[in-house]
Amino acid sequence: xxxDLVANVVxxxxxTGLVYGLMALGLSVIFGVVRVVNFAHGEMMTIAMYATTVxxxxxxxxxxLCILPVAxxxxxxxxxxxxxxxxxxxxxxxxSQFMLLVAVAIIMVNALxxxxxxxxxNVQVDYQLESFEIGKILIDKARLYSAGAAVxxxxxxxxxxxxxxxxxxxxxxxxxxxGARVVGLDVKRLYALTFxxxxxxxxxxxxxxxxxxxxxxxLGPAYTLLAFVIVIVGGLGSMGGALLxxxxxxxxxxxxxxxxxxxxxxxxxxxxxxxxxxxxxQGLLGRK
Amino acid sequence: MRAHAALAxxxxxxxALPWFAGSYALSVATLILYFAYTGQAWNVMMxxxxxxxxxHAVYVGVGGYAAGALFFHYGVGPWAGLWLAILxxxxxxxxxxxxxxxxxxxxxxxxxxTIAFAEFTRIGFDHLDWLGGPGGMxxxxxxxxxxxxxxxxxxxxxxxxxxxxxTAGAFALCFLLLKSRxxxxxxxxxxxxxxxxxLGINTFRWKMLAVAxxxxxxxxxxxxxxxYYNNLFPEQIFHISRSIEIILxxxxxxxxxxxxPILGAVVLTVLSDGITEGLAALGWxxxxxxxxFYGIVLLAVIMFLPNGIWPALARRLGLHK
Lengths: 288, 321
Fold this sequence. Notes:
The complex is a heterodimer of chains A (about 290) and B (about 325). Chain A is mainly α and about 290 residues long. Helices cover about 75% and strands about 5% of the residues of chain A. Chain A has one domain: ABC transporter involved in vitamin B12 uptake, BtuC. Chain A has 11 helices and 2 strands; from the N terminus they run H-H-H-H-E-E-H-H-H-H-H-H-H. Chain B is about 75% helix and about 0% strand. Chain B starts with a helix and ends with a helix.
């Protein structure tokens, strides 16, 4: 096996991993602030992917242009979901929150199945077949652009949380719930904004991911698990950790597909998850 | 008194069911009891001791495959396989429990650890050719009308009585457990682990006991599953949707209550079958529509009855607790 092949596979894994990372970033932001694990996360990702295929088929809109309408719709959807469904569950026990989001996930997967059927859908644009050549290294254009979009979205979110007043207020809620209320922050509204932002990450990741894989309704639960693995490995609630975790999982999946059977690839992800949970439960970049 | 009379009537109806119910009703009743039993097993860990496991399918799967493989490869019946299943599942449960509790993993993290173990095992079994791999393992089905107790082969009524006995046994066991020292310690740990520890309870040991009992009970349900359905696929038996299916009943019925898992299993199975029938009658047979309705009902129950149906019903009926 040549070194070039391995290099190619690793680069593809890193780029796909960045898109995974953005998806997981959404989960991490929601958990970090609202302290609710979104068990419908992967299902939301597939909804964004289907939305992109529909816009592409109907309007011939490039998937990267689809990001704007899909992300806007998802922000509103996430905001509404937090206000309508999740807020009343904030103080309930974990298994109750879990049930709520599992019910939402069941509805989402099967609504997609009803509307689109079980067959795979995709988008086809010409740059999917093209690639950049650097020596013997080939980089798929679509994959590079997708990773670029994911990184831009993640940077935007970092900047929002670091510099904007609302971002700082949201971080204050995450750090100290009681303190945030004492200084007069509208915590419920900030939670809703956070869920909206987390959904927005998923939307961007979904628009980018549809260029790389075909979408089926069954992909939803698999992505939910993948997002869990990534955020735990990176550190639940840590933003940089989510991206790092995404890249690690992307590369390990790609290498497992190359050296062992492709169907065993997620076994390594779950193995990695178990090891991280045991030896560094706060995640690679998480704080205690 | 009225409650005792109601229980006696229920027992008579359940015992006589195979005589008047058709084969379809009997299979539904068997399914309800299967979920009631498995839910009761999960409830020991979550409802009593407060440890949220989202990977209970791993015990059903390992238990089912252990007894199934002994029968498939060596023709050894489930009475021996049962012990192997229990042994393996308790060992697995104790490993997961030891790692989690020693390393201080709790809450959401514990739940995710149990999912990770179940998924890891699922993919592992997919690559074990000795157990059939993804193509599944099929147990030989003998004559359906003669009863072969030694190999647990027989007509549907035999399986019905077996799972009825298991459910009744699990109910009695849980009743006794709740009244025992372990039951009180578990509830103390569930409500406030630090306080329990401060009172001198060795929380590690009692949590491990809960995991051991729960995994042993679930192993038995795996053996039943293997010999009732006669086929095992890693993709199905270990899948996270199976783990969710197991815990929906007790959560809908009432976590930590004795009747919750049973009531939840009845409500969910009847609901699921009712939706199927109703949609078929209306002629709406689009794939996925049934689960959408199911999800909406789940959502409604969890929103309006946060503690489950049983506590609300018991209050309405004037039964205390």
